[in-house]
Design goal:
four-stranded mixed beta sheet; single chain; 16 helices; 15% strand; Aspartate Aminotransferase, domain 1; alpha/beta; seven-stranded mixed beta sheet; Aspartate Aminotransferase, domain 2
Length: 426
Protein backbone atom coordinates (compact mmCIF):
# COMPACT_ATOMS: atom_id res chain seq x y z
CA UNK A 1 0.00 0.00 0.00
CA UNK A 2 1.29 3.45 -0.85
CA UNK A 3 2.36 5.81 1.88
CA UNK A 4 0.01 8.65 2.71
CA UNK A 5 2.13 10.95 4.81
CA UNK A 6 3.80 13.31 2.32
CA UNK A 7 2.90 16.95 2.63
CA UNK A 8 4.84 17.75 -0.53
CA UNK A 9 7.28 16.05 -2.88
CA UNK A 10 10.80 15.11 -1.89
CA UNK A 11 12.23 17.32 -4.67
CA UNK A 12 10.33 20.38 -3.52
CA UNK A 13 11.33 19.75 0.07
CA UNK A 14 15.01 19.46 -0.86
CA UNK A 15 14.80 22.68 -2.89
CA UNK A 16 13.08 24.56 -0.08
CA UNK A 17 15.49 23.24 2.53
CA UNK A 18 18.54 24.18 0.49
CA UNK A 19 17.30 27.73 0.01
CA UNK A 20 16.52 28.18 3.69
CA UNK A 21 19.79 26.67 4.92
CA UNK A 22 21.81 28.70 2.39
CA UNK A 23 20.08 31.87 3.56
CA UNK A 24 20.78 31.22 7.24
CA UNK A 25 24.37 30.22 6.45
CA UNK A 26 24.84 33.52 4.60
CA UNK A 27 23.85 35.30 7.81
CA UNK A 28 26.71 33.57 9.60
CA UNK A 29 24.49 31.65 12.04
CA UNK A 30 25.32 28.03 11.10
CA UNK A 31 28.13 25.88 9.66
CA UNK A 32 30.80 27.08 12.13
CA UNK A 33 33.83 25.21 13.44
CA UNK A 34 34.64 25.21 17.13
CA UNK A 35 38.06 25.83 18.59
CA UNK A 36 39.00 25.00 22.16
CA UNK A 37 36.59 25.10 25.07
CA UNK A 38 35.92 23.67 28.51
CA UNK A 39 32.28 22.72 28.00
CA UNK A 40 30.86 25.90 29.48
CA UNK A 41 32.62 27.94 26.83
CA UNK A 42 33.30 27.41 23.14
CA UNK A 43 35.77 29.30 20.99
CA UNK A 44 34.12 30.02 17.64
CA UNK A 45 35.94 31.87 14.89
CA UNK A 46 38.52 32.90 17.45
CA UNK A 47 35.96 34.34 19.88
CA UNK A 48 35.09 32.77 23.25
CA UNK A 49 31.34 32.29 23.71
CA UNK A 50 29.24 30.98 26.56
CA UNK A 51 27.93 27.60 25.46
CA UNK A 52 24.14 27.31 25.42
CA UNK A 53 23.94 24.97 22.45
CA UNK A 54 25.28 21.66 23.73
CA UNK A 55 23.18 18.50 24.17
CA UNK A 56 25.63 17.20 26.78
CA UNK A 57 23.19 18.18 29.49
CA UNK A 58 25.01 16.45 32.36
CA UNK A 59 28.49 17.43 31.19
CA UNK A 60 29.76 13.85 31.51
CA UNK A 61 32.10 13.98 28.53
CA UNK A 62 34.76 15.37 30.86
CA UNK A 63 34.01 13.16 33.84
CA UNK A 64 37.23 11.47 35.06
CA UNK A 65 35.64 8.01 35.00
CA UNK A 66 34.68 8.32 31.33
CA UNK A 67 38.10 9.66 30.35
CA UNK A 68 39.79 6.80 32.21
CA UNK A 69 37.49 4.25 30.57
CA UNK A 70 38.26 5.60 27.12
CA UNK A 71 42.01 5.63 27.77
CA UNK A 72 42.06 2.07 29.10
CA UNK A 73 40.09 0.76 26.10
CA UNK A 74 42.32 2.66 23.69
CA UNK A 75 45.45 1.08 25.12
CA UNK A 76 43.93 -2.42 25.24
CA UNK A 77 42.23 -2.55 21.83
CA UNK A 78 43.80 0.29 19.80
CA UNK A 79 42.10 3.10 17.93
CA UNK A 80 39.76 0.78 16.02
CA UNK A 81 38.34 -2.74 16.07
CA UNK A 82 37.79 -3.01 12.36
CA UNK A 83 35.57 -5.99 11.62
CA UNK A 84 31.83 -6.42 11.22
CA UNK A 85 30.07 -7.35 14.45
CA UNK A 86 28.44 -10.19 12.52
CA UNK A 87 31.79 -11.97 12.56
CA UNK A 88 33.47 -10.66 15.69
CA UNK A 89 32.78 -7.89 18.17
CA UNK A 90 34.89 -6.09 20.73
CA UNK A 91 34.10 -7.57 24.18
CA UNK A 92 33.25 -4.08 25.44
CA UNK A 93 29.92 -4.37 23.61
CA UNK A 94 28.83 -7.15 25.93
CA UNK A 95 29.92 -5.18 28.99
CA UNK A 96 28.07 -2.10 27.77
CA UNK A 97 24.84 -3.88 26.86
CA UNK A 98 24.85 -5.71 30.18
CA UNK A 99 25.28 -2.48 32.14
CA UNK A 100 22.67 -0.67 30.07
CA UNK A 101 20.30 -3.56 30.68
CA UNK A 102 20.56 -2.85 34.39
CA UNK A 103 20.15 0.88 33.82
CA UNK A 104 17.03 0.45 31.70
CA UNK A 105 15.66 -2.79 33.14
CA UNK A 106 15.30 -4.04 29.56
CA UNK A 107 17.08 -6.11 26.94
CA UNK A 108 19.44 -3.76 25.12
CA UNK A 109 21.24 -3.76 21.80
CA UNK A 110 23.83 -1.04 21.11
CA UNK A 111 24.15 0.66 17.70
CA UNK A 112 26.76 3.07 16.26
CA UNK A 113 24.24 5.91 16.71
CA UNK A 114 20.58 6.43 17.53
CA UNK A 115 19.89 6.94 13.82
CA UNK A 116 21.56 3.61 13.02
CA UNK A 117 19.47 2.06 15.78
CA UNK A 118 16.28 3.27 14.10
CA UNK A 119 17.47 1.97 10.73
CA UNK A 120 18.24 -1.41 12.30
CA UNK A 121 15.15 -1.80 14.47
CA UNK A 122 12.15 -0.38 12.64
CA UNK A 123 12.32 -2.55 9.49
CA UNK A 124 12.62 -5.61 11.73
CA UNK A 125 9.89 -4.96 14.29
CA UNK A 126 7.25 -3.57 11.90
CA UNK A 127 5.40 -6.33 10.08
CA UNK A 128 3.74 -6.53 6.68
CA UNK A 129 0.25 -6.32 8.20
CA UNK A 130 0.96 -3.29 10.40
CA UNK A 131 -0.06 0.36 10.22
CA UNK A 132 2.51 3.03 11.14
CA UNK A 133 1.53 6.44 12.54
CA UNK A 134 4.30 9.00 13.01
CA UNK A 135 4.15 12.19 15.08
CA UNK A 136 4.85 15.08 12.73
CA UNK A 137 7.61 16.39 15.04
CA UNK A 138 9.28 13.03 15.65
CA UNK A 139 13.03 13.32 15.10
CA UNK A 140 14.15 13.44 11.48
CA UNK A 141 16.04 10.19 11.95
CA UNK A 142 12.77 8.39 12.77
CA UNK A 143 11.16 9.74 9.61
CA UNK A 144 14.29 8.69 7.70
CA UNK A 145 14.03 5.13 8.99
CA UNK A 146 10.44 4.82 7.78
CA UNK A 147 11.74 5.19 4.23
CA UNK A 148 12.96 1.60 4.60
CA UNK A 149 9.42 0.41 5.30
CA UNK A 150 7.86 0.75 1.87
CA UNK A 151 5.28 -2.01 2.07
CA UNK A 152 3.04 -0.73 4.87
CA UNK A 153 0.84 2.38 5.17
CA UNK A 154 2.51 5.26 7.00
CA UNK A 155 0.49 8.24 8.22
CA UNK A 156 1.45 11.49 9.91
CA UNK A 157 -0.21 12.66 13.11
CA UNK A 158 -0.44 16.21 14.37
CA UNK A 159 1.93 16.73 17.25
CA UNK A 160 0.94 14.97 20.49
CA UNK A 161 -2.70 14.64 19.38
CA UNK A 162 -3.59 11.41 21.13
CA UNK A 163 -7.28 12.10 20.40
CA UNK A 164 -6.51 11.81 16.71
CA UNK A 165 -4.40 8.73 17.37
CA UNK A 166 -7.37 7.12 19.08
CA UNK A 167 -9.52 7.91 16.06
CA UNK A 168 -7.02 6.10 13.86
CA UNK A 169 -7.03 3.14 16.22
CA UNK A 170 -10.83 2.95 16.05
CA UNK A 171 -10.80 3.24 12.26
CA UNK A 172 -8.06 0.60 12.00
CA UNK A 173 -10.17 -1.92 13.91
CA UNK A 174 -8.92 -5.39 13.10
CA UNK A 175 -7.66 -4.50 9.62
CA UNK A 176 -4.09 -4.42 10.91
CA UNK A 177 -2.18 -6.80 13.11
CA UNK A 178 -0.58 -3.90 14.99
CA UNK A 179 -0.70 -0.12 14.92
CA UNK A 180 2.70 1.41 15.63
CA UNK A 181 2.90 4.96 16.93
CA UNK A 182 6.35 6.50 16.42
CA UNK A 183 7.19 9.54 18.53
CA UNK A 184 9.85 11.22 20.66
CA UNK A 185 9.96 10.96 24.43
CA UNK A 186 11.36 14.50 24.63
CA UNK A 187 11.13 16.60 21.49
CA UNK A 188 14.48 18.14 20.65
CA UNK A 189 13.09 21.36 19.19
CA UNK A 190 10.17 22.35 21.41
CA UNK A 191 11.52 20.74 24.56
CA UNK A 192 8.18 19.12 25.39
CA UNK A 193 7.49 15.54 26.46
CA UNK A 194 5.26 13.00 24.78
CA UNK A 195 1.82 12.74 26.45
CA UNK A 196 2.82 9.68 28.46
CA UNK A 197 -0.31 9.45 30.60
CA UNK A 198 -2.59 9.51 27.56
CA UNK A 199 -0.41 7.00 25.70
CA UNK A 200 -0.44 4.66 28.68
CA UNK A 201 -4.25 4.84 28.72
CA UNK A 202 -4.39 4.06 24.99
CA UNK A 203 -2.09 1.07 25.49
CA UNK A 204 -4.53 -0.25 28.07
CA UNK A 205 -7.59 0.24 25.85
CA UNK A 206 -6.17 -0.90 22.50
CA UNK A 207 -4.22 -4.18 22.50
CA UNK A 208 -3.09 -3.64 18.90
CA UNK A 209 -1.28 -0.40 19.78
CA UNK A 210 2.52 -0.54 19.99
CA UNK A 211 4.87 2.39 20.67
CA UNK A 212 8.33 3.15 19.34
CA UNK A 213 9.79 6.09 21.26
CA UNK A 214 12.98 8.01 20.44
CA UNK A 215 14.01 9.17 23.91
CA UNK A 216 17.47 10.41 22.91
CA UNK A 217 17.17 13.81 24.58
CA UNK A 218 15.74 12.51 27.88
CA UNK A 219 18.34 9.81 28.46
CA UNK A 220 20.54 10.21 31.57
CA UNK A 221 19.29 13.48 33.02
CA UNK A 222 15.91 12.09 34.10
CA UNK A 223 14.56 8.82 35.48
CA UNK A 224 15.94 6.17 37.83
CA UNK A 225 19.53 5.39 36.83
CA UNK A 226 19.00 7.96 34.06
CA UNK A 227 16.82 5.63 32.00
CA UNK A 228 14.93 8.58 30.51
CA UNK A 229 11.32 9.68 30.39
CA UNK A 230 9.76 7.00 28.17
CA UNK A 231 10.81 4.00 30.25
CA UNK A 232 9.97 5.86 33.45
CA UNK A 233 6.36 6.23 32.31
CA UNK A 234 5.87 3.34 29.88
CA UNK A 235 8.39 0.73 30.96
CA UNK A 236 5.62 -1.44 32.41
CA UNK A 237 4.36 -2.32 28.92
CA UNK A 238 5.78 -5.07 26.72
CA UNK A 239 4.41 -3.22 23.69
CA UNK A 240 6.89 -0.35 23.98
CA UNK A 241 10.29 -0.11 22.30
CA UNK A 242 12.57 2.76 23.30
CA UNK A 243 15.60 4.15 21.49
CA UNK A 244 18.13 6.31 23.36
CA UNK A 245 21.32 8.19 22.63
CA UNK A 246 24.69 7.57 24.23
CA UNK A 247 26.03 10.73 22.56
CA UNK A 248 24.11 13.43 24.44
CA UNK A 249 23.68 13.58 28.23
CA UNK A 250 25.17 10.06 28.49
CA UNK A 251 28.52 11.58 27.55
CA UNK A 252 29.85 8.90 25.18
CA UNK A 253 29.12 7.74 21.61
CA UNK A 254 26.44 5.58 20.03
CA UNK A 255 22.81 4.68 20.51
CA UNK A 256 20.84 1.86 22.08
CA UNK A 257 17.50 0.14 21.63
CA UNK A 258 15.73 -1.04 24.81
CA UNK A 259 13.46 -3.99 24.13
CA UNK A 260 10.84 -5.91 26.12
CA UNK A 261 12.16 -9.40 25.31
CA UNK A 262 15.39 -11.25 24.64
CA UNK A 263 13.82 -12.76 21.52
CA UNK A 264 13.13 -9.38 19.95
CA UNK A 265 16.61 -8.20 20.85
CA UNK A 266 18.14 -11.26 19.17
CA UNK A 267 16.03 -10.71 16.05
CA UNK A 268 17.21 -7.11 15.67
CA UNK A 269 20.80 -8.12 16.40
CA UNK A 270 20.67 -10.75 13.66
CA UNK A 271 18.60 -8.93 11.07
CA UNK A 272 19.15 -5.20 11.62
CA UNK A 273 21.20 -4.04 8.64
CA UNK A 274 23.40 -1.41 10.35
CA UNK A 275 24.25 -3.89 13.11
CA UNK A 276 25.55 -6.28 10.48
CA UNK A 277 27.20 -3.99 7.94
CA UNK A 278 28.05 -0.60 9.45
CA UNK A 279 31.37 0.21 11.08
CA UNK A 280 31.74 -0.63 14.77
CA UNK A 281 32.02 1.91 17.57
CA UNK A 282 35.72 2.60 18.29
CA UNK A 283 37.04 0.94 21.48
CA UNK A 284 37.76 4.24 23.24
CA UNK A 285 34.13 5.29 22.76
CA UNK A 286 32.93 1.92 24.04
CA UNK A 287 35.21 2.22 27.07
CA UNK A 288 33.80 5.64 27.88
CA UNK A 289 30.25 4.30 27.46
CA UNK A 290 30.85 1.38 29.82
CA UNK A 291 32.21 3.82 32.42
CA UNK A 292 29.18 6.08 31.95
CA UNK A 293 26.76 3.17 32.35
CA UNK A 294 28.47 2.20 35.60
CA UNK A 295 28.25 5.82 36.74
CA UNK A 296 24.52 5.76 35.97
CA UNK A 297 24.16 2.81 38.34
CA UNK A 298 25.96 4.64 41.15
CA UNK A 299 24.52 7.07 43.74
CA UNK A 300 26.56 9.87 42.15
CA UNK A 301 24.15 10.15 39.24
CA UNK A 302 21.33 11.48 41.44
CA UNK A 303 23.57 14.30 42.62
CA UNK A 304 24.53 15.12 39.05
CA UNK A 305 20.89 15.09 37.95
CA UNK A 306 19.96 17.40 40.82
CA UNK A 307 22.65 19.90 39.83
CA UNK A 308 21.19 20.12 36.32
CA UNK A 309 17.63 20.37 37.68
CA UNK A 310 18.66 23.34 39.82
CA UNK A 311 19.97 25.15 36.74
CA UNK A 312 16.91 24.38 34.66
CA UNK A 313 14.58 25.64 37.39
CA UNK A 314 16.61 28.81 37.84
CA UNK A 315 16.44 29.73 34.15
CA UNK A 316 12.74 28.94 33.84
CA UNK A 317 11.88 30.96 36.94
CA UNK A 318 13.95 33.91 35.79
CA UNK A 319 12.42 33.88 32.31
CA UNK A 320 8.96 33.70 33.83
CA UNK A 321 9.78 36.62 36.10
CA UNK A 322 10.85 38.60 33.02
CA UNK A 323 7.62 37.56 31.24
CA UNK A 324 9.47 35.81 28.44
CA UNK A 325 7.25 33.12 26.99
CA UNK A 326 8.64 29.70 26.12
CA UNK A 327 7.30 27.16 23.65
CA UNK A 328 6.49 24.79 26.52
CA UNK A 329 6.22 24.84 30.29
CA UNK A 330 7.94 21.45 30.63
CA UNK A 331 10.91 21.45 33.01
CA UNK A 332 13.55 20.24 30.56
CA UNK A 333 17.01 21.55 29.64
CA UNK A 334 15.75 22.48 26.15
CA UNK A 335 14.37 26.00 25.75
CA UNK A 336 12.71 27.55 22.73
CA UNK A 337 11.33 31.04 22.18
CA UNK A 338 9.11 31.61 19.13
CA UNK A 339 9.24 34.77 17.03
CA UNK A 340 6.93 35.84 14.25
CA UNK A 341 9.52 36.02 11.47
CA UNK A 342 12.90 34.66 10.50
CA UNK A 343 14.58 38.11 10.42
CA UNK A 344 13.61 38.78 14.04
CA UNK A 345 14.80 35.36 15.20
CA UNK A 346 18.05 35.84 13.26
CA UNK A 347 18.49 39.28 14.80
CA UNK A 348 18.13 37.91 18.32
CA UNK A 349 20.62 35.10 17.71
CA UNK A 350 23.08 37.50 16.06
CA UNK A 351 22.82 39.98 18.93
CA UNK A 352 23.45 37.25 21.48
CA UNK A 353 26.45 36.02 19.50
CA UNK A 354 27.85 39.55 19.41
CA UNK A 355 27.58 39.57 23.20
CA UNK A 356 29.46 36.29 23.50
CA UNK A 357 26.45 34.02 23.99
CA UNK A 358 26.01 31.01 21.73
CA UNK A 359 22.39 30.07 21.06
CA UNK A 360 20.92 28.43 17.99
CA UNK A 361 18.44 29.49 15.34
CA UNK A 362 15.61 27.06 14.61
CA UNK A 363 13.79 27.53 11.34
CA UNK A 364 12.05 25.49 8.68
CA UNK A 365 12.38 22.55 8.11
CA UNK A 366 13.42 21.87 11.73
CA UNK A 367 10.29 23.71 12.93
CA UNK A 368 7.08 24.77 11.16
CA UNK A 369 7.61 27.60 8.70
CA UNK A 370 5.43 29.95 10.77
CA UNK A 371 7.40 29.43 14.01
CA UNK A 372 11.01 30.56 13.57
CA UNK A 373 12.66 30.43 16.98
CA UNK A 374 15.79 30.64 19.01
CA UNK A 375 16.76 27.47 20.82
CA UNK A 376 19.14 27.19 23.74
CA UNK A 377 20.06 24.47 26.18
CA UNK A 378 21.24 24.36 29.76
CA UNK A 379 23.88 21.96 31.05
CA UNK A 380 25.93 21.37 34.19
CA UNK A 381 28.76 23.14 32.40
CA UNK A 382 26.90 26.44 32.80
CA UNK A 383 27.62 28.35 36.00
CA UNK A 384 24.81 30.17 37.76
CA UNK A 385 26.48 33.46 36.89
CA UNK A 386 26.56 32.54 33.21
CA UNK A 387 22.90 31.54 33.36
CA UNK A 388 22.07 34.95 34.81
CA UNK A 389 24.02 36.56 31.98
CA UNK A 390 21.97 34.57 29.48
CA UNK A 391 18.64 35.60 31.01
CA UNK A 392 19.61 39.27 31.28
CA UNK A 393 20.63 39.41 27.64
CA UNK A 394 17.53 37.53 26.48
CA UNK A 395 15.39 40.07 28.32
CA UNK A 396 17.21 42.98 26.68
CA UNK A 397 17.05 41.56 23.16
CA UNK A 398 13.40 40.57 23.55
CA UNK A 399 12.54 44.10 24.60
CA UNK A 400 14.48 45.49 21.64
CA UNK A 401 12.56 43.45 19.07
CA UNK A 402 9.11 43.76 20.66
CA UNK A 403 8.46 47.11 19.03
CA UNK A 404 9.26 45.95 15.52
CA UNK A 405 6.19 46.07 13.30
CA UNK A 406 4.87 42.86 11.84
CA UNK A 407 5.13 44.26 8.31
CA UNK A 408 8.85 44.95 8.62
CA UNK A 409 9.45 41.41 9.85
CA UNK A 410 8.52 39.84 6.53
CA UNK A 411 11.33 37.88 4.96
CA UNK A 412 11.89 36.78 1.40
CA UNK A 413 12.52 33.19 2.51
CA UNK A 414 8.86 32.91 3.48
CA UNK A 415 7.98 34.11 -0.02
CA UNK A 416 10.24 31.46 -1.51
CA UNK A 417 8.39 28.82 0.51
CA UNK A 418 4.94 30.36 0.26
CA UNK A 419 3.51 27.45 -1.67
CA UNK A 420 4.52 25.14 1.22
CA UNK A 421 3.22 27.26 4.04
CA UNK A 422 -0.19 25.68 4.55
CA UNK A 423 1.11 22.10 4.57
CA UNK A 424 4.22 22.77 6.63
CA UNK A 425 2.34 24.78 9.27
CA UNK A 426 -0.01 21.86 9.84
Amino acid sequence: MAKSRSFFSRGRKVQATERMVTEVESRGLIMHRAGSGDGGEWVIDGRPMLNFGSCSYLGLERHPALLAGAQAALHEFGSNFSISRTYLECPLYEALESALGRVMDRHVVVAPSTTMGHLAALPVIIGDRDLVVVDQFAHASVHMATELIDDVPIELLRHNRTDLLEQKLIEAGDKYERVWYLCDGLYSMLGDFAPFEALSALLARYPRLHLYVDDAHAMSWTGRHGRGAALTHLGHSDRVVVAVSLSKAFGATGGAIALPSAELRAKIRRCGGPLMFSGPIPPAALGAAVASAELHLSPELETIQAELSERVSFVRNELDRRQISLATDEATPIFMIHYDSIPVACSVVSTLRERGIFCCLSAFPAVPINKPSIRFTVSRHNSMADLQTLVDNLAETSAAVSGTSAQSRRHRSTQVLAELETSAAE
